[in-house]
Amino acid sequence: MSKLLEKMSTAILEGEAEKMPNLVKKALAEGTSAKEVLENGLLVGMQEVGVRFRAGDMFVPEVLMSAEAMQAAMVVLRPELAASGHKQIGKVVLGTVKGDLHDIGKNLVGMMCEGAGFEVVDIGFNVEPENFIEAIKNHQPEVIGMSAMLTTTMRAMGHTIKAIEEAGLRDRVKIMVGGAPVDAEFAKRIGADGYGSNAPAGAELAQKFVGAA
Ligand code: B1M
């Protein structure tokens, strides 16, 4: 790995968002391709974040800082990637369900999915079932991800899946759910395809859904 790419993955790991735009610009200016910057710099850092988080060696505030660093790098890199025709492994539409305003966990899942090579369409929080349906029609994702943090709103996940079924779109997508009150048993009961206990697990599940893990 080049020195600059190594610096980049370390800066991701250490959550140094302010360093990211310059590091990415410098690497691109030196002739490193956008794909190399992503795969051999940023993703190396994000993968390590996932490993450390799962092992209990990193905690949510640190993961959030890494996610912010990744986001800062992607602001510069995204247009370059699009221009270079970098092939993504799939598309994930993510939203926090109706009635629920918590979006920190969902945002982390989004960053991890982006880090895993997905295009992520974030449709926000307090998302009505109809808006998930609209997003499936408009964006044609392989994966839908729903987040809920309240025991009162987790039921909206079931309602959303039902609405997707009624719209005749259930076969088109894999559905994953997550959030503090949700578990694998609940996911199964409401007809989801899987449950992610944390952000790296969500990204891994999405990769499995598209046959990339
Ligand atoms: Co709220 N809140 N909150 N809150 N809030 C909780 C969730 C609560 C547990 C606090 C408590 O009472 N101890 C409690 C819920 C109780 C319950 O239902 N059992 C609660 C409550 C009651 C409320 C209000 C009702 C309070 C009030 O107004 N009376 C209100 C509801 C508003 C609404 O949504 N309608 C409310 C409001 C808020 C704020 C707006 C102030 C703010 C949210 C800001 C924001 O998100 N932009 C907030 C916050 C920050 C919290 C706590 C403190 C932190 C949540 C968080 O971000 N955690 C929370 C208490 C706590 O958890 N300690 C609490 C960090 C985040 C990284 O974790 O979201 O679990 P988490 O995501 C994890 C995993 O769950 C998983 O991966 C993530 C990373 O590992 N994951 C997925 C999440 N989604 C996934 C999707 C996947 C896969 C994995 O696939 C799709």
Describe this entry's structure for a reader:
It contains 9 helices and 5 strands; from the N terminus they run H-H-H-H-E-H-E-H-E-H-E-H-E-H. Strand 3, helix 7 and strand 4 form a beta-alpha-beta unit. It has a 5-stranded parallel sheet with strand order 2-1-3-4-5, sandwiched between helices. The relative contact order is 0.13. The chain starts with a helix and ends with a helix. With about 210 residues, it is of the alpha/beta class. The model has no long low-confidence stretch (mean pLDDT about 95). About 55% of the residues lie in helices and about 10% in strands. It folds into 2 domains: about 80 residues, Methyltransferase, Methionine Synthase (B12-binding Domains), Chain A, domain 1; about 120 residues, 3-Layer(aba) Sandwich (Rossmann fold), CATH 3.40.50.280. CO-5-methoxybenzimidazolylcobamide binds next to helix 5, strand 3, strand 4 and helix 9.
